[in-house]
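Hi F.,

I've been meaning to write this up properly since the lab meeting, where we talked about keeping a consistent format for the predictions we share between groups. The idea is simple: the sequence comes first, exactly as it goes in, then the structure tokens exactly as they come out, then a line or two of notes. No screenshots and no reformatting. I'm using this chain as the first example so we have something concrete to point to.
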Amino acid sequence: MLNARKSPKQTMSDSMLRRYIRDYLRSHAGDTVDFAWQGGEPTLAGLDFYRKAVA
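Output, unedited:
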């Protein structure tokens, strides 16, 4: 068996998420933007992360 160390779960902080969305919105003209997260690792962030992202 390999001696693999588990690293702590790392997700984007709330402040980084707010900055990212703010900067993304500022850089795109128009009335709407779409965000898409693909399956796999991004979905491991948990439901609360995505609730904050769309709030």
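Notes:
Helices lie at 14-26, 47-54.
Residues 7 and 49 are 19 Å apart (CA to CA).

If this format works for you, I'll send the rest the same way.

G.
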